[in-house]
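HOLO CASE FILE
Compound: zinc ion
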Amino acid sequence: MKQTLSSEGSGVEARPAGPSVALQFGGKRVACPICGETDFAARKVMLNTRKLTFFNLDFLNKTATIYRCLRCSHLLWFED
Ligand SMILES: [Zn+2]
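Model generated. Tokens follow.
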């Protein structure tokens, strides 16, 4: 079954399911585009830029959530 990312719906949400999370987007469960795995490990990261840090505007830096496929380690990035 082919699944594609969609920009509609309520956005990206991660549901805890033991040690892994299921990536849901617009109400649909998202599978890894490489291997089809549906379990991911998620974590939040800062998207720091040197220019903003130089001007002491780190608060403008955005965060992103990275979902790492538990089978093939492919990374899916979502800006928050
Ligand atoms: Zn994968």
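CASE NOTES: Residues 13 and 24 are 6 Å apart (CA to CA). Residues 32, 34-35, 37, 69, 71-72, 74 surround zinc ion (CB under 6 Å).
CLOSED: yes
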